[in-house]
Amino acid sequence: MKRSCGSSVRGAWPLLLLPVQAALMVCLGRLVTGPAARHWPLSAEGSADPALAERRGATATAVTDWFSALAGTQAVVGVTLFCVLALLLVPRVPRRAEALFLGASVAAQSAVFLVVTAWVDRPRPAVAHLDAAPPTSSFPSGHVGASLALYGGLAVIAVLRLRGPWRHAVAGCLLLVPPAVALSRMYRGMHYPSDVAGGLLNGAATLLITGFALLYGRRSTAEPARAERSGPAPAPRSGGPVIVVRHPHGCPDELADRVRTVLRDHGHRDPRWILTSAERPCGTLAGELATLRPALVVVCGGDGTLRACAEVLAGSRIPLAVVPCGTGNLLARNLGLPMDPALALDESLGGGTFGIDVGRVRGDGLPPTRFTVMAGAGFDAAMVRDTSPRLKSRMGWAAYVLSALRHLGDPGMRLTVRVDGGRTRRRRARMVVIGNVGTLQGGLPLLPEARPDSGRLEVVLFDPRGAAGWFAAAGHLAKRVLRRRGQAPGQTAPGPAAAPGGRSEAGGALEYFSATRIEIRCAVPQPRELDGDAVRDGVRLTAEIEPGALRVCLPRAPGAPTTPRQPGATAAADSGACLPQAPGPAS
Question: Measuring CA to CA, how many Å separate 366 from each of 27, 272, 420, 565?
Fold first, then answer.
């Protein structure tokens, strides 16, 4: 990480070209509105807007209104903020360079635009305007420049970071937006052709400079390689019965071979493999436990597979080892495990067993069900529910972004909250999240007080009111991420304690509660989810904590700082090593 940040700073010198870009755009604007205005083709562009105005129709007016709004200030700011947060929080490895590139491109284009309009004064075309005319110069078009900086920037990210041939189709669709905005702005009488050309030039120059400064020469973050770790392999473990639950898509054959190798290194040469399916998310694990008691259950999958296995293993004291190979892997992240699946298993088997809590939730149409990460209702559940499985398999986290965009305008929900059998509180929120753990992708501590061994559930109601509320919430959460960056890896950063009476933050956009039992009742049925899997819509969620119900193999205690493991050393735990050591010579 240190090397990447340093490289970004050292390579940011092309950003010094932005003032040069602004100066050249000012000179171009003065030329367009001055001496060059009397010469062809600028002398003839005054007839373009009247010609378009004469051909206006209802359909074209509606279409151009949509494209014009797509490049308006509110839309550009909102989409930029959403995409930046998505790049930081959704991927397994946060796309910080891409997020910085996108945000810097939009901001830099806007800054250059404001400088140019301060020095270039050009009235808008003398035709009926279909949009409100801002008090800025007609040259250059701010809408066109902003659309190219935003949607062109997203196209660059799509080509560089997405996989598969369809990424070019995505980029092509995004690149069609700025020309469509340019034609729309001329059709609606807001700009001359040279104005939109200037906007395209300004946006393209900004993308070129910021892309060269922030993306050029960067390589994608590589997963840590096992070969880089020093020290001898841990002593082999005794070969007791081990069951491996494997999600066939999350854990393909190549990864399964790596898991098999790690198990062999720890003395388990004949594990029993179980495949999961949509109908049986933990495979035949329940049936296997009815006939034998394994020494260990290894779960290769995402949070949904872990939840299904935890449902069976909770209370049994059979240890579980996590092999993170899903989309979110939130439990593994909150337990401080590496995101490399084989390395996570290797470190876990070299550590100890620790008890973590699980939540138990029920509701209308929802039988009692355990969860290890979070349960929720509202916006996040709707996003999970409406994400296409086909797109998810092809696009990964980007499929969630597309689904979330569909629900940004969903209305809030009216609900009541009851904490530990206390009084009923009436609230309004966009979503409610009940967490056993609290950190999302990108290190975002949505529930800063949540710990997997605290014996309590943490609850947040998210209710931003208008653009100011969204910005307040985003800024508040971003500050949490920055504070967390300065801590030792694996160490949690508790925020102010959430009393049973609750506390509000970010101007009321976030409200927190802490409880051993939480009851949520919505006015109308809402989408609901458990550990990233959609469940049946309903109006009630009642969640309780089961302290220490699940035994998990971990390199260190949950929340403990990450420290390099000394060769031959194992982590201490309340129950000793994850599995018994192989027997040594008698003394």
Answer: 66, 32, 21, 43
Do 314 and 552 touch, CB atoms closer than 8 A?
no
- Report the candidate in 452, 418, 457 with the shortest Cα–Cα distance to residue 544: 457
Query: Roughly how many angstroms between the first and final C-alpha of the chain, as a whole number?
Result: 48
Q: Is the previous residue joined to 140 through a cis bond, with omega within 30 degrees of 0?
A: yes
Structure tokens at 138: 């007609």
Looking only at the bridges linking them, the beta strands covering 374-378 and 517-530 are antiparallel
Q: What would the two tokens of residue 146 be?
A: 């902003």
Q: What residues form DSSP beta bridges with 503?
A: 512
How far is CA 104 from each of CA 6, 18, 98, 149, 509, rounded to the nearest angstrom?
18, 11, 10, 9, 26
Please state the separation of Cα 16 from the chain's center in Å. Answer: 31
Peptide bond into 496 cis (omega under 30): no
Are residues 523 and 473 in contact, defined by beta-carbon separation less than 8 angstroms? no
Backbone φ, ψ for residue 485 (5° rounding): -60, -30
Q: What are phi and psi of 505, to 5 degrees?
A: -140, 170
Beta strands in 34-184 (DSSP E): none
* CA dist., res. 271 & res. 245, Å (int): 10
Tell me phi and psi for residue 324, to 5 degrees.
-75, 110
- Closest by Cα among 215, 218, 16 to 101: 215
At 7, phi and psi to the nearest 5? -65, -40
Mean pLDDT across the stretch 288-314? 93
Task: Identify the DSSP state of 149.
Answer: I
Tell me the torsion sign for CA atoms 183, 185, 187, 193.
negative
Instruction: Compute the distance between CA of residue 297 and CA of residue 161 in angstroms, rounded to an integer.
Output: 35
Question: Of 544, 538, 543, which is closest to residue 365 (Cα–Cα)?
Answer: 538
Tokens of 287: 């049936």
Tell me whether residue 316 is exposed, middle or buried, using C-beta atoms within 10 angstroms of its C-beta: 0 to 12, 13 to 18, 19 or more: middle
Residue 440: which pLDDT band, with cuts at 50, 70 and 90? Answer: confident
Q: Does the global pTM surpass 0.90? A: no
Q: Cα separations (Å) of 438 from 75, 143, 396, 444, 577? A: 30, 39, 22, 8, 27
What is the residue whose two structure tokens read 């806007």? 110
The alpha carbon of 73 is separated from its chain's Cα centroid by a whole number of angstroms, namely 24
What is the reported pLDDT for 224?
33
